[in-house]
Amino acid sequence: MLPRLPVITRCLTLAALCVAGPVAALEFPLPPPGEDVVGQVQVIKAKYEDTFADLGTANDLGYLEMVAANPGIDPWLPGAGTEVILPTRFILPPGPREGIVINLAEYRLYYFPKGQGVVYTFPLGIGREGWGSPIAHTSITAKTPNPTWTPPASIRAEHAADGDPLPGVVPAGPDNPLGPFKFTLGTPGYLIHGSNKKFGIGMRTSHGCFRMLNNNVLQMAGMVPVGTSVRIINEPYKFGVSAGKVYLEAHMPLDDKGNPSVVDKHTAVINALLKREDLANNLRMNWDVVRDVVAAEDGLPVEIAVPTAASATSVSSTPFDMP
User: Fold this and answer.
1) Residue 14 has what pLDDT?
2) Of 15, 34, 232, 300, which is least surrounded by CB within 10 A?
3) Do residues 279 and 270 lie in contact, with contact meaning Cβ atoms separated by under 8 Å?
4) What phi-psi label fits residue 130: left (phi over 0), alpha (psi between -120 and 50 degrees) or beta?
5) pLDDT tens digit string along 142-179?
6) Exposed/middle/buried for residue 96 (C-beta within 10 Å: 0-12, 13-18, 19+)
7) How many Å separate Cα 132 from the centre of its chain?
8) Which residues are CB-neighbours of 321 under 8 A, at least 6 positions away?
């Protein structure tokens, strides 16, 4: 059985085993079939002027995932010399490894370019309260550099009510909220685009569209062709295999409107596991560790089981009482 460790101790133990230092871009070799984990968690020492927003921007990480991975650290003033975890290890999202996959619960996009054997991943801003991003299977229908923005009537009304009226058309440039590039989706009214705001990537801040860091959306612009599949999912619990071990990555669940959701965590975790038919019936599961991982919601993949040909514990009958 795997040892049961307090959540904070687990995180620090995991981080201590990883190489420190920031990354230049989140591009990873695509693992072979049956393997699901990419990257490595990293640890850096904060400088006095660092904030989680700045560190996230420098390392292709969103604000909320930085906060989740570093409980107890002030995100606006971590303090000089404070060890900060960079959550740059990921379980790939479930389903086909093709095109673009957006996982709302992660605030993150994955891109699997055809035939290149790599995966790219980028943080996203998603829809805020009342403006939830959709769950859909769509595609890229157009690519537009230096876009203008025609605010929908609903957004113009919202701004007018706040005393901040918008023009009928916002021209391209530094004041344009779509940033330097936009991808139009087949789902009407939704885009993947850059932003004229430094803050808000990796948070619930948009009117339903998907915001990217400008350097990220420009990198995508050169890689992603029109017609690329876009699969938008909402999976807070991801199971994956690496080197013969099974991992779980847990995030705060979001409801269909993009708001934090109170869910039956037992049912949600079991359902996520049952989607992995290759794992569900052949695991020796440490449910104490699973409980800790789900309670932490820190986005760090943690070993929770080993496959076995004759598991003595059935997934469906295992007690799993969440606090």
Assistant:
1) 45
2) 34
3) no
4) left
5) 999 999 877 666 666 666 666 666 666 677 778 788 88
6) exposed
7) 16
8) 266
Active site residue 18: no
Tokens 């292709």, residue?
A: 60
Helical segments of 115-168, H only: 153-161
Q: Is 193 annotated in the active site? A: yes
- The confidence score (pLDDT) of residue 320 equals 46
- Alpha-carbon distance 12 to 167, whole Å? 50
14 SS3 class = helix
Amino acid at 172: A
Rounded CA separation 220/149 (Å): 20
Among the options 11, 18, 137, 193, which is catalytic?
193
Residues 266 and 318: beta-carbon distance below 8 Å:
no
Active-site position among 11, 207, 209, 251: 209
Contact between 291 and 322 (Cβ < 8 Å): yes
- At 104 the pLDDT is 93
E strand segments, the chain: 27-29, 37-39, 42-45, 83-86, 89-91, 99-103, 108-112, 118-123, 126-127, 136-145, 181-185, 191-193, 204-206, 210-211, 229-233, 237-242, 245-250, 283-285, 302-307
Per DSSP, 97 falls in state: -
Cβ–Cβ under 8 Å, residues 197 and 177? yes
Give me the residues of the chain with pLDDT under 70, please: 1-25, 127-132, 151-169, 206-208, 256-262, 280-282, 307-323
Helix 7-16 / helix 287-296 crossing angle, nearest 10 deg: 90
Answer for the pair 231, 210: CB distance below 8 angstroms, yes or no: no
Say what the pTM is.
0.85
Per-residue confidence (pLDDT) for residue 141, from 0 to 100: 97
Task: Return d(Cα 253, Cα 177) in angstroms, integer.
Answer: 28
